[in-house]
Amino acid sequence: MNLFTKQNEIEKILRDVQRVAEILFQKGWSEKNAGNISVKLPDAIALVSNPKVHPLDKPFPALADTCFYMTGTGKRMQDVAVSATDNGLFIQITPDGHGYIPVKATDQEVRPTSEFPSHLGIHNMIAERGSHETIVMHTHATEIIALTQNPKIKSSEALNKILWGMHPETMVFIPKGAGFVPYILPGTQTIADATIEQFASHDIVVWEKHGIFAIGKDVIDTFDNIDIACKSAKIWFACKSAGFEPEGMTDEQLDELRDLVKKFNS
């Protein structure tokens, strides 16, 4: 079914979603139906006449008429890896931003991810600030969740001291670091608002005892940011398991890396 005029571009995005979904499953970060991905699409959906509109609990005016692909609620990443369309759906936000129109690519009835409020809220924030990220990704990254079980790691500052300190490329590719959200019931507007607040000043956001959110300009790039953060967490745990306290980067070394990041982005 051709829903879009830019069909080749959409198919490339869906192939990347499938590729990353397989990686998330193989890493053990997507047990059962854990994790979700949404993509802001570069095209409008060819809607049928008199489409069914689903009201949103909160309006998102900056997303008016915007189209998205997102994985479906209850769908497993190992199944998304086989078929993104069978295990996801396309939606279009209404012109007033108060509702959305679901469009099925197959005969299956698929509903949006349970973290729908967080995904739309983050995309709305991106649209309002005028940056160019199109992907929102959430997964249950084991090493990051384990870090937040430590009673001494309950803030963005404590989390970033570890993530930045274990490997220089973490600072290079995640220069704003991770925002920390204390435990809040998932799937609620409350946790969505807290996540949006952290994304205002961070590259990734960690939910205590739950998982991680990342945003990016393409699917692979967004996954990479999660993977880089997890590499630092793995190094920290490897040092701990070997019986010594990891030394970490010094403040001077981190400042040098910040200067390097500024040169990259100038």
Features:
L-fuculose-1-phosphate Aldolase; 266 residues; globular; 2 domains; nine-stranded mixed beta sheet; alpha+beta; 16% strand
Beta strand count = 9
Spatial strand sequence of the major β-sheet: 2-5-4-3-1-6-9-8-7
Looking at the overall shape, the CATH architecture of the largest domain is 3-Layer(aba) Sandwich
The CATH topology assignment of the largest domain is L-fuculose-1-phosphate Aldolase
Distance between the termini: 44 Å
**Helix vs. strand class:** alpha+beta
Task: State Rg.
Answer: 19 Å
Mean pLDDT: 92
Q: How many structural domains are formed by the residues?
A: 2
- The CATH first-level class of the largest domain comes to Alpha Beta
Model regions low in confidence, pLDDT < 50 over at least 5 residues: none
Q: What is the string of helix and strand elements?
A: HEEEHEEHEHHHEHEEHH
Task: Describe the protein.
The chain is of the alpha+beta class and 266 residues long. It has 2 domains: 134 residues, 3-Layer(aba) Sandwich (L-fuculose-1-phosphate Aldolase), CATH 3.40.225.10; 126 residues, L-fuculose-1-phosphate Aldolase. 42% of the residues lie in helices and 16% in strands. The protein contains 9 helices and 9 strands. The protein has a 9-stranded mixed sheet, with helices on both faces. Helix 3 runs parallel beside helix 7, helix 4 packs across helix 8 and helix 5 packs across helix 8.
